[in-house]
Design a protein that fits this description.
The complex is a heterodimer of chains A (about 230) and B (about 110).
Chain A: E1 9-15, H1 18-34, E2 37-43, H2 49-60, E3 66-70, H3 75-86, E4 90-92, H4 103-110, E5 120-124, H5 131-134, E6 141-147, H6 154-157, H7 159-164, E7 167-171, H8 183-193, E8 198-201, H9 210-226
Parallel strand pairs in A: 2-5, 2-6, 3-4, 3-5, 6-7, 7-8
Helix pairs in contact in A: 2-3, 2-9
Chain B: H1 2-20, E1 28-34, H2 41-52, E2 62-68, E3 71-74, E4 80-82, H3 83-86, E5 98-102, E6 106-112
Parallel strand pairs in B: 1-2
Antiparallel strand pairs in B: 1-6, 3-4, 3-5
The chains are: A alpha/beta (about 230), B alpha+beta (about 110).
The structure holds guanosine-5'-diphosphate, magnesium ion and zinc ion (2 copies).
One zinc ion binds next to loops of chain B.
Chain lengths: ~230, ~110
C-alpha cells in the first residue's frame, strides 16, 4: 500500500444495538402469533432470581403452562433446583461466557422449548445490571430484582436497567433491619427513571409478597393475550 | 467480558457494511462512544486488536474512538449540564427531573477502506 493511496470513507452511523432491536421486535411478533408470553427476569448475581422463580412457579403452575430458560452463570445448579422444587423443566442456554443474552440467543433457546399449549416462558437472564438492559431479548415484559443488601440507590447507578423494566421486585425484605435500606426512597428513585414501573417488595425466603408478583404476572399474561 | 462481546457486534456490522459496498479490506473503523455508555475505550481497543487477527477482511484494521461527552437535560429549568460532573441532580436548580440527552452512544460512525 502506498502512502498517498486515497482513503475512501463509508459513512455508517449505526448503533451496534440496531440489528438486535430488529431481531427482538421480530421475535416478539412471532411470540404473539404463537400466544406465548416471554418474561425476561434480570438482576445482579445473587439477588434472588432462582429463589423467587421457585416460589412464583409453585403459585402459578396450576393456572398457566410454564417453561423456564436459564441463562445465569451457575445455571446447571439453578435448573436442577427449579426442577426439584417445582417439577418444571428448564432449558439451559449457552451464552458462551457472554455477559448478556441477545434476541438471537433467546430465539435459539426458545427453539428447544416445546411451545405447543404453552402460555408463558420465564427467562432467568445473566446476573448483571448493565448489558442485559442494553440488549432487548424480544421479551413481552421485563422484570428485575433489586435485593435489600444492594442498597436503595441502585436505580441512580444503573438508570438504564430501571428504565427498561416494567416491574421492580425489592427482595430480601427480611434483612431490612440490618441495612439502612430506605424503601420509600428506592421507589422514588425507580419512578424517577421509569414513572410507569410497578414496585413490589417481596421476601423470597419466606414467600411474603410473592403472591403479588404472581398476580401481576397472571394479569400481564391475560391482558397481553387479549390485546 | 463486556467489551469483547461488543467487539463481535462491531465486527458483524462492519463486515456486513463492507460486503454491501463491495469492499474486500477495511483499514479503519471509527466509533462514536458515549461517555456514560459503560464501555471502557482501552478495553475495547485491546479486544479489537485480538479479535481482528481472526478476520482476514479486517487484518491490521485500526479502531478509532470518538468520545461523546454526556449531557443531561433538566425538565424543571430547561438547562443542560455535564452528566459526569453533576449526576442526576441539576446544578442550576437542584431538580432531579432530568434525563440523558446524549452520552449513551455505541455507534459505528464510518469505515475507511
Ligand atoms: N435472607 C434472604 N435471602 C434470600 C432471599 N432470597 C434469596 N436469598 C438467598 O440469596 C442467595 C442467592 O439467591 P438466588 O435465588 O440463587 O439468586 P440468583 O443468583 O439471582 O438466582 C441464596 O443463598 C438465597 O437463599 C430472601 O428473601 N432473603
Ligand atoms: Mg440463579
Ligand atoms: Zn455485556
Ligand atoms: Zn434544572
Amino acid at each position: 500500500m502506498t502512502k498517498n493511496q486515497e482513503v475512501k470513507v463509508i459513512e455508517i452511523k449505526k448503533s451496534i444495538f440496531a440489528d438486535n432491536d430488529l431481531d427482538a421486535d421480530n421475535l416478539r411478533k412471532e411470540l404473539k402469533d404463537k400466544g406465548v408470553f416471554l418474561l425476561n427476569l434480570m438482576s445482579s448475581p445473587g439477588s434472588g432470581k432462582t429463589t423467587t422463580l421457585i416460589r412464583t412457579l409453585n403459585l402459578i403452575k396450576d393456572k398457566l403452562r410454564v417453561a423456564v430458560m436459564e441463562a445465569d452463570i451457575d445455571s446447571d445448579v439453578d435448573a436442577v433446583k427449579i426442577k426439584e422444587a417445582t417439577g418444571i423443566e428448564s432449558i439451559q442456554l449457552h451464552t458462551g461466557g457472554m455477559c448478556h443474552l441477545d434476541a438471537e440467543m433467546t430465539r435459539q433457546g426458545l427453539d428447544n422449548v416445546p411451545m405447543d399449549g404453552l402460555d408463558l416462558v420465564i427467562l432467568e437472564n445473566v446476573g448483571n445490571l448493565v448489558c442485559p438492559a442494553e440488549f432487548d431479548t424480544g421479551s413481552c415484559r421485563n422484570a428485575m430484582i433489586l435485593s435489600v443488601p444492594e442498597g436503595h440507590d441502585k436505580p441512580l447507578k444503573y438508570p438504564l436497567m430501571f428504565s427498561v423494566c416494567d416491574l421492580v421486585l425489592i427482595n430480601k425484605t427480611d434483612v431490612m433491619p440490618y441495612f439502612d435500606f430506605d424503601l420509600a426512597k428506592c421507589e422514588e428513585y425507580v419512578h424517577m427513571r421509569n414513572p410507569k414501573a410497578t414496585v413490589i417488595p417481596i421476601c423470597a425466603k419466606t414467600g411474603e409478597g410473592v403472591e403479588k408478583f404472581a398476580e401481576w404476572l397472571l394479569n400481564e399474561v391475560n391482558n397481553w393475550k387479549k390485546s | 467480558m463486556h467489551e469483547l462481546g461488543i467487539v463481535f457486534y462491531i465486527i458483524k456490522d462492519v463486515k456486513k457494511a463492507a460486503e454491501e459496498n463491495g469492499v474486500t479490506h477495511v483499514n479503519a473503523v471509527v466509533m462514536d462512544i458515549g461517555e456514560v455508555s459503560t464501555i471502557v475505550p482501552d478495553y475495547l481497543t485491546d479486544c479489537w486488536r485480538w479479535a481482528v487477527t481472526k478476520e482476514p477482511m479486517l487484518e491490521g484494521c485500526e479502531l478509532r474512538i470518538n468520545t461523546i461527552p454526556a449531557v443531561t437535560h433538566c425538565d424543571a429549568c430547561g438547562e443542560e449540564y455535564e452528566t459526569v460532573r453533576y449526576g442526576k441532580t441539576c446544578p442550576h436548580c437542584g431538580s432531579g427531573e432530568t434525563w440523558l440527552l446524549r452520552g449513551n452512544e455505541v455507534e459505528i460512525k464510518q469505515i475507511e477502506v
